[in-house]
């Protein structure tokens, strides 16, 4: 593939592939490289510019592949290294770039470095690659500090030393099977730069960096108790991160093709992203404030305005991903928060569907890039009745079965309405690794393909219109003031405007505007509740409609 245009990532629409649940080519019930390769034309026809793949590396799958045992090998569940290389080339042939997940904060307990650290004992060079520390208490029986795992429970696990005695503790901000790497160690830094080179040499177009804000810790490992709300925690957003990402940026810039670094940083306020996006570190980092905003005109306008005013359009717009409840379900609830909750309450899926249709038009109309999570283009909802014995997410066990975790957004996709497993795998193959709701039959991709009113048709139409309007590459956005505070409206260059009605009643559309696309049927020239429209306006749309 030749060198792309400058800053392709700035306006790209990137489709996130959770490989295990996208498409099964081998027939074992688990998504794989063969399944994805066969479905690349679907992603091309959808209108995506790139795909982002969740980890495909060799892993014991304690956390869905985010516990990496070998960063240079493909897990046999998904295929082979040769198939991975062929997938990248096939994607490029379809004019799809490929962004890989890189997991630098932690590895697997089965990684060769960690098994060597356990065998080597305290004070060894092998243990210096991780955060091994003696415990507190008279016999070292207490963790070194009060840090808690993101998955629940302490962030420290005690090991048995080679002679069998209770010994040091190691840090794991996630599951115990995911020991944190020590980025103060030059061996760690050198190793990951070589890993990046390994995949860049195989034509990867960039990397999404998992928990990009956690790599560097305060070396004093102070307790976190008593920190004021919103204070920087001792394991996040530390100054040493900038040197790491400057080095990574120099590495990527040495390759042709404008490779990209995308940061996963759940920092609040969003303005804390600004130093990372100054031009010599990350190219972009997700706008999670937008993902977490309630379905409310004033709140969304504030989030959009803050992002564009403080960091420009460098933070992609995203509605769902593999770590949060699908937005169709969130928008159907009284509370639209994204957190993992023991009892989130039932959702009105019809309401959630209307709002999800409007939300994608809103997000795709904003300046910058957008990330779409697999299945949202089909209108899939969160599956919240997976039998407990089938749940794989470690959050379920770590929370004492109180929180079901993230498997509900990772259920395999439906492709064919009348095939076993809805065509997720080949005929005669195994059942999908997580059960699919029977009602997904009507949402299968093939069932929606010929329906002009389907969610899939809406996504295809929106992405086609977006691609055809070169003027949307300009970052300019001008807020408009429609009738009513519960209506969100803005214009973009090239006589384009977006209008979203959050109120309970239909509102008039501007009399001089042509409707290019609407998320739902109009009501005699009015925009119904929970509906969005893209409009062609006059040369200078008025500030008051």
Question: Can you tell me about this structure?
Answer:
With 545 residues, this protein is of the alpha/beta class. The chain has three domains: 8-105 and 184-218 and 233-382 and 438-459, Glycosidases (TIM Barrel, Alpha-Beta Barrel); 112-171, Alpha-Beta Complex (Oligo-1,6-glucosidase, domain 2), CATH 3.90.400.10; 475-536, Immunoglobulin-like, CATH 2.60.40.1180. It is 23% helix and 15% strand. The chain has helices at residues 33-38, 40-46, 81-93, 112-120, 186-200, 241-253, 288-292, 297-310, 327-330, 349-365, 394-398, 445-449, 455-468, and strands spanning 13-17, 50-53, 57-58, 70-74, 97-102, 132-133, 156-160, 166-171, 206-209, 260-263, 284-285, 317-318, 370-373, 478-479, 487-492, 496-501, 507-508, 514-518, 526-527, 531-536. The strands form five sheets. The chain has an eight-stranded parallel β-sheet. It has a five-stranded antiparallel β-sheet with strand order 14-15-16-20-18, covered by helices on one side. Helix 5 runs parallel beside helix 6 and helix 10 runs parallel beside helix 13. The protein is globular, with a radius of gyration of 24 Å.
């Amino acid at each position: 593939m030749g060198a792309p245009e400058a800053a392709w990532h700035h306006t790209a629409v990137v489709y996130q592939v959770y490989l295990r649940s996208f498409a099964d080519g081998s027939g074992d019930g688990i998504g794989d490289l063969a399944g994805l390769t066969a479905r690349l034309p679907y992603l091309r026809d959808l209108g995506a510019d790139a795909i982002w793949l969740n980890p495909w590396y060799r892993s014991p799958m304690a956390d869905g592949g985010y516990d990496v045992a070998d960063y240079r090998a493909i897990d046999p569940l998904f295929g082979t290294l040769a198939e991975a290389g062929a997938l990248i080339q096939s994607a490029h042939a379809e004019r799809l770039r490929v962004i890989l997940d890189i997991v630098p904060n932690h590895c697997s307990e089965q990684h060769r470095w960690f098994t060597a650290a356990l065998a080597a004992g305290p004070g060894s060079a092998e243990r210096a690659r991780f955060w091994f520390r003696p415990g507190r208490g008279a016999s070292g029986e207490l963790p070194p500090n009060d840090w808690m795992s993101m998955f629940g429970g302490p962030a420290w696990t005690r090991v048995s030393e080679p002679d069998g005695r209770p010994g040091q503790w190691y840090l794991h901000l996630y599951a115990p099977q995911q020991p944190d790497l020590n980025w103060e160690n030059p061996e760690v830094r050198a190793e990951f730069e070589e890993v990046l080179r390994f995949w860049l040499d195989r034509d990867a177009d960039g990397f999404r960096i998992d928990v990009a804000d956690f790599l560097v810790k305060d070396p004093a490992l102070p307790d976190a108790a008593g920190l004021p709300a919103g204070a920087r925690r001792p394991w996040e957003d530390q100054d040493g991160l900038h040197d790491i990402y400057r080095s990574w940026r120099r590495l990527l810039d040495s390759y042709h093709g404008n490779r990209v670094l995308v940061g996963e940083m759940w920092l609040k306020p969003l303005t804390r992203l600004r130093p990372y996006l100054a031009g010599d570190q990350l190219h972009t980092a997700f706008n999670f404030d937008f993902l977490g905003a309630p379905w409310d005109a004033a709140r969304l306008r504030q989030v959009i305005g803050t992002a564009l005013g403080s960091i420009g359009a460098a933070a992609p717009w995203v509605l769902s991903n593999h770590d949060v409840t699908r937005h169709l379900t969130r928008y159907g609830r009284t509370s639209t928060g994204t957190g993992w909750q023991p009892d989130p309450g039932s959702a009105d899926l019809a309401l959630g569907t209307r709002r999800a249709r409007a939300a994608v038009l809103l997000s795709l109309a904003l300046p910058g890039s957008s990330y779409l999570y697999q299945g949202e283009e089909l209108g899939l909802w969160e599956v919240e009745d997976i039998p407990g014995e089938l749940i794989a997410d470690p959050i379920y066990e770590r929370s004492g079965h109180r929180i079901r975790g993230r498997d509900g957004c990772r259920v395999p996709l439906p492709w064919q309405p009348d095939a076993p497993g809805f065509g997720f795998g080949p005929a005669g193959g195994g059942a999908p690794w997580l059960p699919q709701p029977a009602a997904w039959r009507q949402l299968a991709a093939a069932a929606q393909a010929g329906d002009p009113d389907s969610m899939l048709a809406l996504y295809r139409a929106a992405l086609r219109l977006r691609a055809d309007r070169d003027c949307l590459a300009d970052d300019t956005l001008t807020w408009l003031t429609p009738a009513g505070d519960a209506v969100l409206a803005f214009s973009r260059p090239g006589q384009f405007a977006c209008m979203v009605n959050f109120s309970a009643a239909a509102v008039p559309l501007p009399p001089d505007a042509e409707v290019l696309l609407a998320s739902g049927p109009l009501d005699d020239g009015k925009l119904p509740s929970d509906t969005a429209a893209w409009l062609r306006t006059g040369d200078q749309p008025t500030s008051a409609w």
